[in-house]
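Review this chain:
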Amino acid sequence: MNRTANATDTDPWTPYFDKAAIATDYDTYITGVCSVLELLSLACLIFLDKISPQERRERANENKSYRKKIWTTINLILVFLIVVNLASIALYDVHSTDPVVTLATNATSQTLFYIFAFSVALYTYYRSHPIIVSIQPRAVVYLRATLWLVGLLSITEIPLSVLSNMDATVDSVWNAALADVTLVSEIINFLFDASILLLLAKYLTMISGIVVGMDMGRLSIISRYGIASFVTYQVFLASSVALYLVSEADIPAIPVWVFAALTHVQNLAPSVYIVIQIAMKRSLQLERQRENESAGEILRTDRDRTPVKTLSSSNRIITSEN
C-alpha cells in the first residue's frame, strides 16, 4: 500500500495530508504504549505457563526445556508482529526535509507494512491449523499454496514500492505496477482469510448444541477469536485500500474528517488485532486450567470408586500452542 503523499500549499490535498500527519503523530504514541503493554502481557502469560504445575509435568514427561516452550512458532510470530507494527508506523511518522531521508523512511515503512501483512497470514494459518486438520484435512494443501502465493506477492510489492517512492509522478509505471500487484495481493489475502473463516464458522456450527469436551473447548476459543481477528484485519485492509484509492484522485472525494478517521483506523487496527491474539492466548490458558481441574476431579472420583485399579491414561487429546 502506497502510504506516501506529496502536496503543496495550493494543492487541495494539503489539509487532508496535514490532518493525516497529525493523526499519525497521535497514533504513533498510542501504538508505542500499546506495543510495550502487549510485550509485557505476553511475557506475563509465558511466565504463568512456566509456574503452572501442569506445564512442569508436561515438560518433564516430554523432556522439553522451558526455552523450547517459550520460543514456539505462535509466540515468535506474535513478538514479530508487535515489533514490525511499531517500527512501521514510527518510521512513517519521521518528519524530515531531506528527501533522501524521507525516501528511506517511507520505503522502509512500506516494506514493514507488507511484511506485517504476510506475517498475519502466517500467524492465521498456524493458529487455525488444529481446526483445519480436524474438520477439513484436504484444505491444508490449498491453504499452504495460497500462503506461499501471499508471500511471493508481498516480496514483489517491496521493490515496487521503493521504485514508486523514487518516481513520485502520478503516471509512474512503477506506481501503476504496484497498484496492480497490491490489488491482486489484497484479493488473495481476502480469499485466504475467508477460507479459514468459513472453516472456523463450520467448526462452531458443528459443536453448537453439544457438550464441549476437553479438545473442543480450546478449539472453540480459537474459532471465536479467529472470527474476531478476521473482522479486525479486514477493517484494517479496507481502510488501507480506501486511503490508497482516494488519495490517487486529483480532487478529494471525501471530507477531511473521513480521511483522518480512515488514517486512525489504518494505524491502530493492527494493535487491536494483536490485543485480540493476546486475549486469545489468555483464554486458552484459562481453558487449559479448567480442563486440568476437570480431569483431576474425574481421576479422584474414579479412584474413590475403584480403589484397587491403577489408572494410566493421558488427558492430552489435542494441543494447540497457547
Observations:
- The CA atoms of residues 132 and 138 lie 9 Å apart.
- The radius of gyration is 23 Å.
- The chain has a mean pLDDT of 81.
- The first helix runs from residue 14 to 51.
